[in-house]
Amino acid sequence: MSFSPWDLPMPYSLNHSNLQCFLQCITPTVLTRTRLPPNQKCTQTSNGFLQTPEAEKHIVEGFTLSDLWHSYTEWSAYGVGVPIVLNNGDRVVQYYSPSLSALQIYTRKPFCSSRGLGNRAKPENGSCYNDRGRDKIKKSSSNSSCLGSNATQTTDQCGYLYYQYNEMASPYDRVPLKEKINELAKHYPGLVDLHSTDLSPYSWMAIAWYPVYQVPVARNVKELSACFLTYHPLSSLSQGSKNIMLEKEKVQGKNCRGEDRRSASRKEEISLPPFAVVTYKMFGTLWINPETSDQDSIISQRTAACYWLKQLQFQHHDFNFFMSRQFQNY
User: Fold this and answer.
1) Nearest alpha-carbon partner for 83 in 34, 32, 11, 148
2) Stretch 233-251: mean pLDDT, rounded?
């Protein structure tokens, strides 16, 4: 049976948060794939059987970037449906289109793809960079006012910069996220070949979410023009004290869009909730419920984005655009 937005349970309690509902709906989940650590291999015993070092305790769990991008296939084609409760009590399902805003992939070791790198042509409408060594990224001046100088993180600790991308095009000229990844992967196959355990904890992506339509159409509700910029980790490893944890959960029940997630094999998924969020055109009380912690949450998540870019010395085009319009009237 096909999913209907009206099957969604829509709470009308005072503590309902449209913002938290949005963040839940746009969080991707990826099936886990187990593998041996990079330095360990299966060995063959005298009787011909294969064994792994010290049995299974060295097996690590993560996900492939290919599986991650696959999770965006339907969202890239149709948008992500987010159930919204309007201020008058009516409800709509707002659809958001995801596009790749920025990306940095740091590997723990130099990466060589079995398929080769092919043509290294520079993709259009963005900036990219690739190098096998430890790269020094050009220091950003636009983000320097966010935090003190003690927030700067030397890039030598980040790993080997395999690839970075920074979208410069207008939102109206961008292609959906999955299509963009397919385009970039032709020149940088590691974008689909790499496993999350190959990546440094400083690997990340930023997704821009722009509204496309709602069902039913809500007229004269300018709050529905809000746009979001979410930052997600790409590595399943932690950063020690600055830990960005990936959430592992059983595949069961339904997600926020009402899609059935039960699995006969009870496979596990890794969830990649945003560790930072920046908003644009988010005004009024539609998104920020004063009865919840929404206001504190959006401030802390905006600060987290600022800190993240500061420590990586990355001048994120969309971040600068969103921040420059935080206090404008529309």
Assistant:
1) 11
2) 57
Of 77, 28, 31, which is closest to residue 182 (Cα–Cα)?
77
pLDDT tens track for 124-149: 344 444 443 334 333 333 443 343 33
What is the full DSSP assignment across 9-72? Answer: ----STT--HHHHHHHHT--EEE-EEE--TT---EE-TTS-EE-TTGGGG-EEE-BHHHHHHTT
> DSSP label at 156?
G
The rounded distance, in Å, linking the Cα atoms of 51 and 40 is 11
Q: Band the pLDDT of 33: cuts 50, 70, 90.
A: confident
Q: What is the pTM of this model?
A: 0.77
Show the tokens assigned to 71. 């999770």
Q: How far is C-alpha 178 from the chain's CA centre?
A: 13
What Cα–Cα distance (Å) separates residue 70 from each residue in 29, 103, 133?
10, 17, 29
Picking from 123, 112, 249, the residue whose alpha carbon sits closest to that of residue 186 is 123
